[in-house]
Design a protein that fits this description.
alpha+beta, nine-stranded mixed beta sheet, 26 strands, 48% helix, disordered C terminus
Length: 1194
């Protein structure tokens, strides 16, 4: 068959050098990759003449790969595209400004400012003002009256500042995240054959025609067609949604798609489509076409292409409506909201409500006072010409009310959280933690348990064979080749060289005198190293038996725990080499080689003896034991798919002990974890004795402790009931003491993690971190509160499921992550302590001042400046405190611990008392104390007074010194400890102080300030410094003695989560508050609708049953015939739960079914006191009732 594009090619194009056109176009290949299984094979065979011919058309060699010639690679990129999916355009700065403007509080401020501006330009004639009888500014300063616009303008100006700061913060955040993402993308490499050499190539460099090597655990970076495969199984759920693994083979289904995961086996494929032409890319571009509501899927497509998940910023509380869309867009397959986020959202909701109530009361009191004072007490008439002046007053009151709200709502919280997290993420990069999900960073600070892998995390993942048992002899060092029979030596060399992935190899050291480099599977590298130590060359064997000659490969997976390779013997028949965990392989052996290399029978008692004498001693020294065996098939070809029959009657060649030394820094890191109240558990696939030995070396278990070391089988037996289901109660008896889980499957790891997270035993719920590197660790990594994947040894699947990637695969980096996490938590608590003190004081001052003096002592613009100090600068200063080792000396907070502890509450209230006392003294007695004019009851547009300037100045300086107090939240006395380690903090405090001097001295009318004398400045400073002394007094009072103090910002309790959030992807506590209200609304509406429907339904049949007294207590009768006498005092209202109970056995005798025209079927309704499901919905079954769907969906 000729290819449709072929006629366009010159006759000699197929023979031409690499410069010529390719034998197929992008569209041909795209169409080809859209086919599946047999259709795909037909197309390849019919149109392209088989896979090899397709390789020829793409000018690539199935064995050697592409030449790697730059001109050729460039040409391929031009013709077939690059392996790169363009990311979504970042939001422009203006878009971010627009988003920041959506903030509800800011919108209210903008409206208030604009009204204020408009009214300030409207000047009614002066004589009419006298009629209105309201105090107006003195004629001596007409200029002042003209400056009424300044206040509105200043509010607008400060709104602009807040918006710009927020937008800039978002912009830099997004830039940072893109940087992180690019780094993750660049780090993703793939094995490709070029010029006969296997090289690791960045994914973006892969071109059409490349020959890629695929193996267990890979995430495919491009579409391709299988050239050669061993037992290949692919998880295509990311594209098809089907969870079953798809078997891939040349005969049945050779189509491999990008974004899918290799779950088993290995092989080679020729790349046929990259980037936007690959299947994932096509989906991506389709979604990209309809921007907007499709963003969510776009992100999903992005994650499937192996690109890092976008790091999600924390949502600010006030922009809930605006964030709603984003929340939907950000619905990535992620766990419930982080612990801290949950607590913060609830706290912000509580504070917001309180602030709203306070501001509403303030406005109400001011307006009532004004109206009563003027129109009731002084009996003034309302003159139409005075209306603008009255309105000006009302606007002024409204602005004061808004000011109270602005100060009450802690809009700095999202900013503080974001700054703190972004700062930590950047610093954690230096500590080898690559954070993929922002909230994982703070969740780690709450971690109470770490379930760690053994290999590579606790150990160095540099494996070497140190002992061997060959031919009845236990060698404690590697034997010399002469000590072994040539026949046995030959079997060992072939059994290892052929029966291991050809991607595993040992390369010469990078530096002279260094250790040889191990590439690929480390256990296989140890075995290949053993071959080299025996002075043999595994390369020669592999050259003799290339991968194409392997007849059948049973690759290693977590179920088999072994690997076998079948080759054809030159003399006919087949030989299978097997290797795997010694207990598993020995169980399948019935023969063994003796000293002379002769085959001897191997009975159960011999096996037990060998386990006792060889395997256990090796394991107790912390060695991993691997058994090498073989089997010959001389009587024709067996059925290879019948694995159980193939993998029996093996002949044992040797058992080797592989050492993987513990990382030198791990024991100290684990000791730190124990001090910090974190339990470390080891979950490994190794033998229990090996695991126990390593756990003892690491310090996970210490002799004399009361702990459990279990094997996977025993663990399952203890936690499952007769039906084989996991029982939480049984699990709760085991996990608190469990320290080592050996021979565990991925399911066991997942069960353990889930069990610990869901457990409610103990004082607090557990927060679990998990480390993993293999594909099989994916489920546990996803389930854990924080999943750590190994950056070096980890497979793509593990990285995809994780929250943090350890770039150095080292356990100590996890301890650093804990330290940073706790630091984030503490930074936010410090900020809260500072912010809430300001909030409490400012709200009370504004509220009482407004009610008593009709004017807040702190003006709107001043409040906004205070807000700027509080929010932006303080969050910058307090959120960037570097972590200290002392953070690891206390126990974790856990899920339920409130954000604001009783000590913090003591500090907040204590400092609030000091500040309020000072401010009220200054408001009501300040003018006498300083001997200046009083600023109270100043007329509209009057110039700023020294009195109120002193109050503003003192207030700001008290906050400034309280910011230093807020550096400590656990009652420490020395608030200056380590202050110079945080230069940002020093800069912010100094900068704020200088700005304050400038505002007071030169701020003038916009800031309602006037110049102060030197002695007044000193008094203000003295009162400010008093904050530090007062802080010392507060810390002397023991928190325990103050029983009345309450905590705030609790986490969500277990019951609430399960009750409110079954089936929710992401638990958002603010949403939940709204949700409860919605449910009540819907229930109310629903009942009314139901009752109306039922009333209609009953209308006709009711007249017949008026005489029947038994129907008189029906709510429906009551509604249609109000003149009925009702026996019960309260009519019986149908409740949702009742339908469920009463309709379990429906349909009942005598229910009325509502037909389409609203008539009722002629059954007498005997069950009148509850709404029947069948009456509510036309011919639907009970479970589909709209009530049910509403109940569950709302």
């Amino acid at each position: 068959m000729t290819n449709p594009t072929e006629h366009a090619l010159p006759a000699n194009s197929m023979v031409e050098s690499h410069e010529g056109d390719f034998g197929c176009s992008v569209m041909d290949l795209r169409k080809l990759m859209e086919l599946r299984s047999s259709d795909g094979i037909n197309q390849i065979n019919v149109h392209y003449g088989g896979v090899m011919n397709l390789c020829r058309r793409l000018k690539t060699d199935p064995v050697e790969g592409l030449s790697g010639n730059p001109a050729d690679l460039e040409k391929r990129k031009q013709v077939f595209g690059q392996n790169f999916i363009p990311p979504k355009k970042p939001k422009t700065f203006l878009e971010l400004v627009w988003e920041a403007l959506q903030d509800v509080t800011l919108i209210i401020l903008e409206i208030a400012a604009i009204i204020s501006l408009v009214l300030s330009f409207y000047r009614p004639p002066g004589e009419e003002n006298k009629q209105c009888g309201l105090p107006v500014s003195s004629p001596e300063d007409e200029g002042e009256a003209e400056a009424g616009w300044i206040e509105g303008a200043a509010i607008l100006f400060s709104v602009i500042i807040v918006v710009l700061v927020t937008a800039f913060n978002d912009w830099s955040k997004e830039k940072q995240f893109r940087g992180l993402q690019n780094r993750i993308e660049k780090e993703q490499k793939f094995s490709v054959i070029r010029n006969g050499h296997i090289i690791q190539l960045p994914v973006a460099e892969i071109v059409v025609g490349d020959i890629a090597q695929i193996k267990y655990g890979d995430l495919l970076p491009a579409d391709g067609i299988l050239i050669q495969g061993n037992d290949l199984k692919i998880d295509e759920s990311s594209l098809t949604g089907e969870s079953d693994h798809v078997k891939k083979s040349l005969e049945r289904d050779p189509m491999l798609l990008s974004g899918t995961h290799v779950m088993e086996g290995s092989g080679r494929m020729v790349v046929t489509a990259v980037g936007i032409n690959s299947q994932t890319g096509i989906i991506f571009t389709l979604l990209g076409a309809s921007e907007g509501e499709e963003e969510e899927k776009k992100k999903k497509a992005k994650t499937q292409d192996g690109v890092a998940l976008e790091i999600q910023p924390l949502n600010s509380q006030e922009g809930i409506d605006n964030e709603e869309k984003e929340k939907k867009a950000a619905k990535l397959p992620k766990k419930e909201k982080s612990v801290l986020q949950g607590k913060l959202t609830r706290l912000a909701v509580q504070i917001g409500k309180a602030g709203l109530i306070m501001s509403a009361i303030t406005v109400l009191i001011l307006i009532l006072y004004f109206v009563i004072d003027n129109f009731v007490i002084r009996r003034r008439p309302w003159l139409s010409e005075c209306t603008p002046i009255y309105i000006q007053y009302f606007v002024k009151f409204f602005i004061i009310g808004i000011t109270v709200l602005v100060v009450a709502v802690p809009e700095g919280l999202p900013l503080a959280v974001t700054i703190s997290l972004a700062y930590s993420v950047k610093k954690m990069m230096k500590d080898n933690n690559l954070v993929r999900h922002l909230d994982a960073c703070e969740t780690m600070g709450n971690a109470t348990a770490i379930c760690s892998d053994k290999t590579g995390t606790l150990t160095m993942n540099r494996m070497t064979v140190v002992q061997a048992y060959i031919g009845d002899t236990h060698y404690h060092q590697i034997p010399s080749p002469d000590a072994l029979m040539p026949k046995v030596l030959d079997l060992i060399v072939n059994g290892i060289s052929i029966n291991s992935a050809y991607t595993s190899k040992i390369l010469p050291p990078e530096k002279e005198g260094g250790l040889p480099r191990q590439v690929g599977n480390k256990t296989e590298c140890a075995l290949l190293g053993f071959v080299t130590d025996l002075k043999q060359d595994y390369h020669a064997v592999r050259n003799e038996v290339p991968e194409e000659k392997l007849y059948k490969v049973y690759t290693f997976n977590s179920v088999r725990k072994s690997m076998s390779t079948v080759i054809e013997k030159p003399s006919g028949g087949y030989r299978m080499y097997s290797k795997g965990a010694s207990e598993i392989i020995l169980r399948k052996c019935n023969r063994i080689l003796d000293k002379k290399g002769e085959v001897m029978p191997f009975k159960n008692k011999d096996r037990d003896e060998m386990v006792r004498a060889v395997i256990e001693p090796m394991a107790s020294e912390g060695l991993r034991t691997i058994c090498i065996a073989y089997r010959d098939f001389n009587d024709g070809e067996p059925t290879w798919d019948n694995e159980n029959e193939i993998l029996t009657e093996l002949t044992c060649i040797a058992v080797v002990g592989i050492e993987d030394p513990v990382r030198p820094e791990v024991p100290e890191a684990i000791a730190k974890c124990k001090r910090a109240g974190i339990t470390v558990r080891m979950v490994t696939g190794d033998n229990i004795n090996t695991a126990r030995a390593i756990a003892t070396k690491c310090g996970i278990v210490t002799p004399g402790d009361d702990f459990l070391c279990l094997e996977g089988k025993e663990f399952n037996r203890l936690i499952r009931n007769e039906k084989g289901e996991v029982e939480q109660e049984k699990l709760d008896k085991i996990w608190p003491k469990l320290r080592v889980l050996a021979r565990s499957s991925p399911t066991d790891k997942h069960t353990l993690v889930k069990g610990i997270i869901d457990s409610t035993v103990g004082e607090q719920r557990q927060v679990v971190a998990v480390t993993g590197d293999g594909t099989n660790d994916g489920p546990a990594l996803k389930k854990a509160d924080v999943g750590f994947a190994m950056g070096i040894a980890g497979t793509d699947v593990a990285k995809e499921a994780s929250d943090i990637i350890l770039t150095d695969d080292n356990f100590t980096s996890i301890v650093k992550a804990v330290m940073w996490g706790r630091n984030v938590y503490d930074s936010i608590s410090k900020f809260l302590q500072f912010q809430l003190t300001v909030n409490v004081v400012a709200v009370i001052v504004a509220f009482t001042g407004a009610c008593i003096t009709q004017d807040s002592p702190l003006k709107a613009v001043q409040m906004l400046w205070v807000n700027l100090i509080m929010d932006t600068f303080a969050s910058l200063a307090l959120a960037t405190e570097p972590p200290t080792e002392s953070l690891l000396k206390r126990r974790p907070y856990g899920r339920n611990k409130p954000l604001i502890s009783r000590t913090m509450m003591k500090n907040i209230l204590g400092h609030a008392v000091y500040q309020l006392t000072v401010i009220f003294f200054l408001v009501f007695a300040g003018e006498k104390f300083f001997d200046i004019d009083s600023g109270r009851k100043a007329p509209l547009h009057s110039p700023p007074s020294q009195h109120y300037t002193i109050i503003f100045n003192t207030f700001v300086l008290m906050q400034l010194f309280n910011e230093i107090n807020s550096r400590k939240i656990h009652g420490e006395r020395n608030v200056f400890a380590g202050i110079f380690r945080n230069l940002i903090f020093c800069a912010v405090v100094l900068g704020t102080f200088i700005s304050q001097i400038l505002i007071v001295e030169f701020g003038g009318k916009p800031f309602s300030c006037t110049k102060l004398t030197l002695s007044q400045w000193f008094w203000c400073l003295f009162i400010g410094i008093g904050e530090l002394l007062w802080g010392q007094i507060i810390s002397t009072i023991p928190t325990q003695s103050l029983k009345f103090l309450k905590e705030a910002g609790h986490g969500t309790t277990k019951e609430e989560i399960t009750k409110d959030a079954e089936g929710l992807d992401e638990i958002d506590h603010a949403e939940m508050e709204l949700r409860r209200g919605q449910i009540l609304w819907f229930r109310g509406l629903n009942r009314i609708q139901t009752q109306i429907k039922v009333v209609k339904a009953f209308h006709s049949s009711l007249h017949e049953s008026i005489q029947k007294p038994k129907n008189q207590n029906s709510i429906h009768n009551f509604m249609t015939h109000p003149e009925f006498a009702i026996d019960e005092e309260v009519p019986r209202t149908p409740l949702l739960d009742e339908h469920k109970e009463e309709n379990l056995d429906s349909p009942k005798a005598g229910t009325g079914v509502l037909l389409l025209d609203g008539e009722v079927t002629p059954y007498a309704n005997k069950n009148n006191n509850a709404v029947d499901c069948s009456q509510v919905q036309i011919v639907a079954s009970c479970s589909e009732s709209p009530l049910h769907s509403l109940e569950t969906s709302v």
